[in-house]
Design a protein that fits this description.
Blueprint lengths: L1 H4 L12 E5 L25 H12 L5 E5 L9 H10 L3 E6 L2 H5 L6 H7 L3 E5 L5 H8 L3 H14 L11 E5 L10 H16 L5 E4 L6 H9 L3 H10 L3 H4 L7 E4 L5 E2 L2 H5 L16 H4 L26
Parallel strand pairs: 1-2, 1-7, 2-3, 3-4, 4-5, 5-6
Antiparallel strand pairs: 7-8
Amino acid sequence: DVLKKSDLFPLRSENIDVLQVNLGKMCNQVCSHCHVDAGPDRKEIMTRQTMQLCLNAIDSSNCSIVDLTGGAPEMNPEFRWFVKQLSQKGKKVIVRCNLTIIVANKKYHDLPEFFKKYKIEVVSSLPCYTSSNTDAQRGKGVFNKSIKALQMLNDVGYGIEGTGLILNLVYNPGGAFLPPVQSLLEQDYKKELNENFNIHFNNLFAITNVPISRFLEYLVKSNKYEEYMQTLLNSFNQEAAANVMCKNTISVSWDGYLYDCDFNQILELKVGTKAQHLSEFNFNELNKRNIIINQHCFACTAGAGSSCSGTI
């Protein structure tokens, strides 16, 4: 109804350029805001066979960007093989790294060098530049491990001007409220991280928490669900709605099914097309599809908007 008032219904896809691939729900962390409900006990993981279907789909599409996410995508045993294949195809590769995976085990210590070799753009969550706020959202000791990982990335050139190695950080609110102005928050992050830890990065993405999975559980338990949903609705931004990321993105689940975004993926709301799996991938059909929407979509249209690349 809100989109109809803004002459945006039905919401339609437009010039798909990004394939966002979930390599599995296995993760070395259990973050309170995680919409994927990822963790060490999750067994869902993408096979090389499904990755090959992704590669076939990319060949039959106009996608120039492949955005790898999880869980911790690096924990997939086929992660490095997949990155090499994507690189050979000349695609821009983004990896959503939780940072702590780099220092969690010796077998991951070379990830900064691996990222550098394939010129991967690294996007990492750091909810705050203080340990108390970060650890409250992501677990005890996560902040210090994240700082160590950021320093390792800086050491190989990530986030350093002139290297071309992009390191972006992600802020998620620690409660039932919208993120502050992204540009101002970025200035604070750069100042605090530089002065206290000599850490440098390129951009900060402020992402609105979506009311699904663990964050939804938090809202219900704290009796803040209705209040939060009303905040999102009251903050509806027509311009943000017109530029939501689902218009140029296809999300692929670990088992190869297709979704408008990774939030719809968690809710099992598959794309509204006849072909819903990589094995039936039809780029032309997907590129003119109507996008499946629901109440949680208000999170991406609130305030300055929200996407996997920050405010819209």
